[in-house]
Amino acid sequence: MSHVLRRSLTATQPVIVKGEGSYLIDKDGTRYLDACGGAAVSSLGHDNKAVRDAVAAQMATLSYAHTGLFTNEPAEELASYLIARAPKGTGQGRVMYLGSGSEAMEAALKLARQYHLENGQPDRVHLIARAPSYHGNTLGALAVGGHAGRRAPFAPMLINAHHIDAAYGYRLQRDGESEEDFALRMANQLEDRIQTLGPKTVAAFIAEPVVGASLGSQPAPKGYFKRIREICDQHGVLYIADEVMCGMGRTGSLFALEQEGIAADITTMAKGLGAGYMPIAAVMASQKVVKAIEDGTGRLWNGHTYMSHAVACAGALAVMNEIDSRDLLSRVRTLGERLEAGLRSALGQHAHVGDIRGRGLFWTAEVVKDRDTKQPFDVKENIAGAMHMTALAKGVITYPSQGCADGTHGDHVLLAPCFTSTEEEIDQIVAVLAETISEATAGK
Ligand SMILES: Cc1ncc(COP(=O)(O)O)c(C=O)c1O
């Protein structure tokens, strides 16, 4: 019997012993093609030598020195790199390091509160986020998350957070409405909510530039984030960009927000930062936020034992070097075009595929009962679960979820292949997904 408190206490799980390129290999020698990087994590595949060597070399010199007293070279170098590559408008910001996306989101929310206190605005307490969204599993991150199912058991313990609609074109864009008009209508929900709560009481707006697991790789309509930036600036509200899943190259630019032409005040990143080699996350504070603290108390009101871990930072720095030296962002864009074309050709006319959406190497097919009415399957039919197991039986790991349509119903399957995938692997992923969706929905 296992003594690991696993996600499922009843399922038997293969024991993975090795990674090789885009494949994971279990104890019995079964090979699994990783089409989703776990959860959009493993951007460099599973056996990157440069990252492994960098981690081993750092381990051999310095692993840990407490940040209350010391800094270290990998942490400094990585922060300078991220600030230099940040979306225009971030300015001379700073970066703090944490261990997971949820921790980064907690730290971001607290940093927003600190910013307003340093500026003498203690009434700014309200947080506005979107639904659907996912921002992590710790109580603060779960509170701002807009995923009804995941919030439900903990609802009485969550801090107060407000939600507007995520810009979910497939279901919310009206017939005849242009993309720009839809973008404005959705973004103006933020203006309305700020007015309702009282403009001087809102601390921050939180949104993923490309929505991840909760909605399935949903980019924003054109102009959406420009309007969000305007609204936030007008009311002194900070914009926190959650790039935990969509950042670090996944959408074809290092930061997903670069493609929207704005910068956030605070940005979180995690998964692709360590690419699965190191558990590392980061919070980037823009110059505006840093200056408020410098001009105020001069101290960060947040601390964790493992911040700026030298081995984790060295691993992430090696991941960034790999992305640049192998020009993997271009690879994401070209492979992404192939993946999109493959999905549209294999599934575009499928009777149970309502929408195909994404950007870069981040793509989703939303599966519906009735393509004409967009009616989702009943949650109890668990089409997402069926797709997961069907694809796995064919040797391909995908990331299906439920809840995109209304928080409970709505099945989608998300793909986030390694940036280092071959063309043949991308084609195989498409072919297996098409078979999987057909088999999971057969006779339904
Ligand atoms: C957008 C987003 N934010 C935050 C998180 C939380 O990250 P972690 O699971 O590392 O705590 C996730 C995880 O899936 C995520 O997708």
UniProtKB/TrEMBL annotation:
Q: Name one GO molecular function term.
A: pyridoxal phosphate binding
Q: Which key words tag this protein in UniProt?
A: Aminotransferase, Pyridoxal phosphate, Transferase
The identity of this protein, by name, is Aspartate aminotransferase family protein
CDD domains per record? OAT_like
Q: Required co-factor? A: pyridoxal 5'-phosphate
Which family does the entry's similarity section mention? Belongs to the class-III pyridoxal-phosphate-dependent aminotransferase family.
Q: Which GO terms describe its cellular component?
A: cytosol
Q: What is the lineage of its organism?
A: Bacteria, Pseudomonadati, Pseudomonadota, Alphaproteobacteria, Rhodobacterales
Xref: Gene3D superfamilies:
Aspartate Aminotransferase, domain 1, Type I PLP-dependent aspartate aminotransferase-like (Major domain)
Keyword Transferase on this protein?
yes
